[in-house]
Write a structure and sequence with these properties.
Number of helices: 26
Shape: globular
Radius of gyration: 31 Å
Strand order of the largest sheet: 2-3-1-4-5
Number of strands: 5
Helix content: over 70%
């Protein structure tokens, strides 16, 4: 029953997110601070000496890099006052930068005013064509919008800020927006989408040299893994994040990690450990005076109390959480508070009161669309309906629970597909980056060699160079010829893909590697359905063109380290190193769908093709290449016998 903590979920608390390193969000605006801040409680800048501009930049930079992280509200006000006093008179950009700092740090309990203030900042930034400031104020507006209504309403501003930052080619600012947006997606039941944003943000931070931001982003990654049920990965990242926080003496980050460890232990059904972590987080939150942090932690603690049957303590914790959120003007947690209160009432036997609470919580949950909490609500309400003898209503809720959980299972499979797609795209992008760097380095070396050659003007050196060039040319020519002959011997002449000899060599090497490392290895045998009919109806030239199109489509759909080859006629073999059978099935389905989608009307009217695929995984260290291929072939024949255009997995070989 977790609602995000201000610094780690969807960042509903601006002051906590700002103190979390400011995420590079401090930037500039054009309106005078003196004209705006008095109306919302800020102080106008004075008239400092010219040296104050450098001092302002140093202080703002320390906040941006997370080197300065005030722990209490009093310290926050002191930092704001100091930064305010350093704004040079008439300096529109630094005044705008201060205003953004104030938007993040000084308006934590004023979400409605914060939304309006940030919108004004966006307009002012556009007037002076300051893209960084515009992106920053989009992020600030989104964070206030989360507290004012729901996290879902903030997605548009986060996405708008990311696009502005990309246009400005500010890599760190793009990463900031990805972390904001990822937290909302993770919270709203799309943790895989959130994880993709977090992983990309991590790459961007590291590429930009922002090691501090990269360390802070580890907790975001941990939360996404936890929400996906990947508890081992989540704990690994949480432990790293806690270590960094303790090294920096960052109390807010320590509070965030302790709270997330509480949620992790609660979801792992270890409620005593969860309550210990929540207690540690509460102590830190009270020490730094963080009301929203207290509210979020108390909400998690209440859930743990409910799960251990301590319903009276759960109601007391919920009353405290309601009070803390109310004083912080945060209305985004009413659905979770109402749901937990209803579960406590049900635990105490007050089922009629609990059902009224469940009904109210269901209406509130409709705005967030979080299926995980909806399934929990429906299941709990069905039990209360049954306790009151309302069996018809209980059956309705149980049926809805089944449908919602089926949707959750579907989403879980979609999460894996999303992550696989991101990993494939990232691997390809990295490979392309390496290729470009290698080509650039080669060009640089060639240019340097040419420049050195120009320095030599004597005829003897020129003749020597010409001779050397002739020898090199001849050597390269012979090398190219040798490579061409080797390629012809290993390449299918029609399709340009690996031929039987080459694919079997790769297969043997892959089996050796799998046996040495223990990594899984899967192979796919596929062929074109009714290919003879195509040749008979349209001729062999059409059939050849179909083969070429199919090879191109399948090669494009595979990962960079997979190997695809033609073993004869319309039959092909795919080698999937380091891939288990179930993952191989996803790859096979992608190949099948790519072939179905082929447009072949330019080859022959109304021409469409499908393929059948058989998969087998190397199961035994003693299994030979022939045995593995034989099992894959049998699976292919089963696919043919079952009606074609399908994927069939081979059974494991029988034990001797």
């Amino acid at each position: 029953m977790e609602r995000p903590l201000p610094w780690s979920g969807a960042y509903p608390s601006l002051v906590d997110h700002a103190l979390f390193g400011l995420k590079s969000l401090l930037s500039c605006m054009v309106l005078s601070v003196a004209a705006v801040l008095p109306a919302i409680g800020g102080q106008p800048p004075g008239t400092p000496s010219p040296g104050h501009a450098a001092a302002f930049d140093r202080l703002a930079g320390r906040l941006e890099r997370g080197e300065l992280s005030p722990a209490t509200q009093v310290q926050t006000k002191q930092v704001l006052a100091r930064l305010d006093s350093l704004v040079p008179a008439g300096d529109a950009r630094r005044a705008l930068r201060y205003r953004y700092t104030y938007c993040v740090l000084g308006m934590d309990d004023q979400p409605a005013q914060g939304v309006a203030y940030a919108q004004q900042g966006i307009e002012d930034a556009r007037r002076i064509d300051y893209a960084d400031a515009e992106a920053n104020f989009h992020y600030c507006k989104g964070a206030h919008q989360e507290s004012l209504t729901t996290p879902r309403d903030a997605l548009a501003d986060y996405t708008a800020g990311i696009e502005v930052a990309r246009h400005a080619e500010n890599l760190r600012l793009v990463a900031d927006g990805l972390s904001w947006r990822g937290n909302v997606q993770s919270l709203l039941g799309e943790p895989a989408l959130g994880l993709v944003d977090f992983l990309q943000a991590q790459r961007d931070y590291e590429q930009a040299g922002e090691t501090g931001e990269a360390e802070l982003n580890l907790l975001n990654i941990a939360i996404a893994y936890r929400r996906m049920g990947e508890f081992v990965e989540a704990r690994k990242y949480m432990d790293q994040s806690l270590t960094y926080a303790e090294q920096r003496h960052d109390l807010r980050q320590q509070m965030a990690v302790e709270a997330q460890l509480g949620f992790l232990e609660s979801e792992s059904s270890n409620q005593p450990s969860a309550l210990r972590h929540f207690a540690a987080a509460l102590a830190l939150a009270r020490g730094i005076g963080d009301r929203e942090g207290l509210g979020s932690i108390l909400l998690g603690q209440a859930e743990a109390f409910n799960l251990t049957g301590r319903y009276v303590e759960a109601l007391a914790a919920l009353d405290q959480a309601q009070s803390e959120f109310g004083q912080a003007a945060d209305h985004s947690n009413q659905d979770m508070i109402t749901l937990q209160r209803a579960e406590a009432d049900a635990g105490l036997g007050h089922h009629a009161q609990a059902i009224a609470g469940y009904n109210k919580a269901e209406k509130l949950l409709q705005s967030s669309g979080n299926l995980r909490y909806l399934a929990e609500l429906l299941d709990a309400r069905a039990r209360s309906q049954g306790a009151l003898g309302h069996y018809a209503q209980a059956v309705v809720d149980l049926r809805r629970t089944i449908h919602v959980r089926a949707a959750l299972d579907h989403n879980a499979r979609r999460y894996n597909t999303t992550l696989m797609s991101y990993q494939f795209d990232t691997a390809r992008r990295d490979q392309e980056d390496r290729r470009i760097k290698e080509e650039s380095a080669l060009q640089s070396r060639q240019l340097a060699a040419m420049q050195r050659a120009r320095d030599w003007q004597s005829l003897a050196m020129l003749l020597g160079s010409l001779l050397l060039l002739g020898l090199v040319w001849q050597t390269l020519r012979q090398l190219r010829q040798s490579r061409r002959l080797h390629s012809l011997a290993m390449t299918d002449a029609l399709t340009g893909t690996a031929n039987r000899r080459r694919i079997e060599q790769v297969m043997a090497a892959a089996i050796r590697e799998a046996r040495q490392t223990g990594a899984p290895l899967t192979v796919i045998v596929l062929d074109i359905d009714h290919f003879k009919r195509i040749n008979d109806l349209h001729g062999h030239q059409v059939g050849d063109r179909v083969l070429v199109r199919l090879v191109a489509a399948c090669t494009d759909a595979l990962r960079g380290f997979d190997c695809f080859g033609r073993v004869g006629g319309e039959e092909f073999l795919v080698i999937l190193p380091q891939t288990a059978l179930e993952t191989g099935r996803l790859v096979a389905e992608r190949l099948r769908e790519r072939v179905i989608a082929l447009e072949l009307g330019d080859i022959a009217a109304d021409l469409h093709v499908t393929i059948s695929l058989g998969l087998a995984q190397l199961n035994d260290s003693a299994e030979a290449l022939e045995g593995l291929l034989d099992r894959a072939d049998r699976a292919l024949y089963q696919a043919k016998a079952a009606g074609r255009n399908r994927v069939v997995l081979a059974e494991s070989p029988a034990s001797p």
